[in-house]
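Table 4 source record.
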Amino acid sequence: MASIRKRGGAYLIIVSMGYDHNGKRRPPQQKTVHPPEGLTQKQTDKWLQEQATLFEMTCKNITPKRNPNTTLAEYTEIWLRDIAPTKLAKSTVIRERQDTERFLPVLGGYKLTELTADHFRKLYADMRRKKNKNTGKPLSEATIEGVHACLCGILSDAVEGGFIDRNPAWRTFKYAGKKFKRPVADEETAAQIIAALGQENIKYETYFKLVISTGMRRGECCGLKWSDFDHNDHTIHIHRNVVKLTGEDIIVKAPKTAAGDRYVYFSAEMEALLEDYRKYCEDEAEQYEKREITDDDYLFRRRGTSLPMTPTSFTWRFKNILRKYGLPDNLNVHSLRHTAASLMIAGGTDPATVAGLLGHSQVSTTLDIYTHAFDKNKRTASEKLQEALEV
C-alpha cells in the first residue's frame, strides 16, 4: 500500500518496491502531486487515494483485467452491493442509493470510459431546472452537490478498482449563486429563545438547552443516555448519533469520525434542569409503563419503547416554539449548534477548542464554517493592536 505524506501545499506519494533476490530493500518510488483547487478536505483525501493507487499500479506494472464495456449503471450496482456497505455507514448507503436514482436515468447507460466532465456539468444544469416533487420549488444546491459527491465517490472507487484511469467527475460542480448563510441567533435572540424554552414542556426545554449550551448535533442529543452524564466532572460523553431516513427504521450509530466521540461540559444551571427532567421521566415511566428509569435509558425516549426519539420530532417542535413567541422563523435546531459555536468564538475561545467541542475532525472545517465569527475577532484584535501602537 502506498503511503502519502504532506509537503507544504503538495503531497508526496511513496511506493515500497519490496526486496530483491538477495534480501536487499529496493529503493522506493516517489511522486509529488498537487490536489486540484476547490476540493474539500474529504474530496482531497479521496483524490490522493486515487493518485496513490494509480501510481502504485504503474510502479508495479499492474494491469487490472476489467471489462472496458462496464456502464455506470452496472458499476453502480456493484458499488452499492459490494463496496459501499464495507466503507460507509448504513444511513449513508441509504442516502447514496437515493442520490443514484437522480443520475442513473440520465447517465447510467454510458460506459465508464465514455464519461466526460461535460456529461456531469449538463446533468447538474438540468437538475437546476427541475422542481422538487413535494414543494414545487427548484432543487436546492445542497441536493445537487450531494449527487455530485456521490458520483465522485463511486467513480473514485472505480479508479481504485482499475475500471478507469481517472475520475471524470472531479471539479465539475460549481455552486450556483450565493451560498446560503447559516442562520445564527445573536446574543439577544439566544436569550429570548432560552426564556421562551423556560415556558415549554421540560422535555423540550432540556433538549434545546442542551443543544444551545454544548453545540451538539440534533441526532447526537437524541442519542444521549443517562449513563453519558458524569455529574462529578460535569461532562457529557457524546458517542452516538440517531438517524431516521424516510421509509427506514431508526438507526443509532457511532460518530463518523474519532473526533465525533468527545466530551462536552454542562453548567450548574443545566445540572439542576437535568435533575428536574430525570424526575419528570421517572414519573412518566411509572405512570404509563409501570417501570423505573435506568441509566441505560435514552434521555429522549419514545414512550413505551426502548427507542430514542427522532431528530425530526424536535425540528417540528422548535418551529412551533419560534412562531409561538414571535422569534425569527429562519432559525432551526441546527441554528442552535451554530449559535453555540459563534458565542464560543465571540468569547475568545481558540479554534482548536471550538473544533474539539463541536466534533470537527479538522480545525480547518471550523475555520471554514465560522469564518464570519472569527473575522469579528480578527477585527477586534486589529483594533486593539492599533490602539496599543498609538499609545
